[in-house]
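Course assignment 3, question 2. Fill in each field.
Student: A.L.
Task: Predict the tertiary structure for the chain below.
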Amino acid sequence: MFRYTALAALCVVAGSASAGELTARQGGTVDLGDFHGVVYYTEAEDGYRVVTTMAAGEENLPVRFVATLSEGQAFVISVPGELAGAGQALEISRAKGKLVVAEVESTQ
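Answer field:
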């Protein structure tokens, strides 16, 4: 129960921000198929420390992705689609001192 309360609290902190350009310590909501969650970053000595927490409904455990991005770096989080169907993917990138979250075409 605590983990769901923590995820819900993080979503409240995220406010109404959604995928797009984020600033440090400003959370944004993300949706990827049945997975919903938040993404935020903090500035660290070696780059932007990006934290993405997602869950597929309240009955499933949330998963957390953590990466440190230097200028020009990016990573992709993806989920598969139905059999022979397209999946969905998000790219989180750092460019020109900004963090951008965008839907991209799934490579699956």
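Instructor remarks: Confidence is low (pLDDT under 50) at residues 1-18. The chain has one helix and eight strands.
Grade: pending
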